[in-house]
Amino acid sequence: MRSISAFFAFAIAAATLLAGCGGVSSTSAGTSGNTGAKLTLVAYSTPKEAYEALIPAFQKTPEGGGVSFDQSYAASGEQSRAVEAGLPASVIAFSLEPDITRLVDAGIVADDWNSDQYKGMVTDSVAVFVVRKGNPKGIKTWDDLVKPDIEVITPNPFTSGGARWNLMAAYGAQIELGKSEDEALQYLHDLLSHTPVQDKSAREALQTFVGGKGDVMIAYENEAITAQQKGEDVDYVVPEQTILIENPIAVVKDAPPAAQAFVDFLRSDEAQQLFADKGYRPVVESVLARTSFLKPSALFTIAKFGGWSEVKTKFFDPEEGLVTKIEQDLGVSTDSG
Predict the structure, then answer these.
(1) CA-based, 20 to 30 A from 43: which of 20, 22, 93, 295?
(2) Are 153 and 209 in contact (CB under 8 A)?
(3) Above 80 in pLDDT, residue 274?
(4) Domain architecture of the chain: domains with CATH
């Protein structure tokens, strides 16, 4: 029997999907065997602008002609639980690997989903500091985020995959700076005590920040670039110590062949350049080499901490997770429903 929280997650996401949420229909007649196929893309909150460019580009290809799309965007964990609960999906694009793994365990996604040369990933990013235009508080380092007069915006790690990346970036930065694990955990406590609100998703957190709340926001680099492209008065700082954010994509087992064709297209040079134009770091090395993204001097990956399977248990377990205990100590909800 599915849990009540899973049911409500499904209901909310289904309502969002039915409301349109950026839905796109193909107007191309198409000549491929995929003509007439309808795909449902269920994604985390931030890449909506990228897919608004990528889907029409795919529909202009022989493989994408005549393929139509429905789209749904929300917090990564929320989307994953909704698909598990029955939300229709053909392609799932989430912010971190455990949200795919949940659907592998549920029998919805094949267990070899990450066996390709990209290990299941479609884009990369890094965690950055989004600041007000001109950086009036002079924020440059992780230490600056815990100064007495600084308010930090980051989403809730129990609903947002982006928030988990942010906190592991903060924790790992302390380790890179020579701090002990206990000192790194104390830093997370200090950081979250400077956070007045924790929204459900990275996109909602960005809306909170551009709306005037907070002095700095920890975010995906691509979110900072998206905000700038939309004309928001923000700058961003790439800290020397930060994490490489790796975003996965997968096709569900019962999806039509057009779904795999779409995922294959997303790793083409054309699509990877479109991702780059929207602020994402390409996973195709030849395309990445043509970009001007800064490479931090101390860039680390989630593998530094044993990978997401170990991190999820150690830091975010609902009962015993280290971050769980910090959030509960600060009176913040750790409910993932």
Answers:
(1) 295
(2) yes
(3) yes
(4) 4-123+247-288 (3.40.190.10), 124-244+296-329 (3.40.190.10)
The predicted-structure confidence for 54-83, as pLDDT tens digits, reads as follows 999 999 999 999 999 999 999 899 999 999
What is the rounded CA–CA span in Å between residue 19 and residue 38?
17
- CB contact at 8 A, 213 and 151: yes
pLDDT of residue 30: 47
pLDDT at 32: 64
Mean pLDDT of the chain: 91
